[in-house]
Design brief:
By secondary structure, the chain is mainly beta. It is 0% helix and 51% strand. It is built from no helices and 8 strands.
């Protein structure tokens, strides 16, 4: 099993942090690569966070409303690949 971080994306050139608006998946649910798992927003933009790989969403690290720096992990997917 391999653990893969889902990170806070950079939606705009000046974005330094984003706010989690909604989780589309819950911890323990299966996710497919490129499936939308969360909605985040910056001061100017709202965007989707997609799963970087298929697997099980094993841990959500930040709650709705949390401000998270760009590049920081917001959740973890466990894959069956090694």
């Amino acid at each position: 099993m391999t653990k893969v971080n889902i990170i806070m994306p950079k939606l705009g050139m000046t974005m330094k942090k984003g706010t989690i608006v909604e989780w589309k998946k819950k911890s323990g649910e299966k996710v497919e690569k490129e499936e939308v798992v969360a909605i985040v927003e910056s001061e100017k933009l709202t965007g989707e966070v997609k799963a970087p790989t298929s697997g099980i969403l094993v841990e959500i690290l930040h709650d709705v409303g949390d401000e998270v720096p760009v590049g920081e992990a917001i959740a973890i997917i466990e894959t069956e690949e090694s």
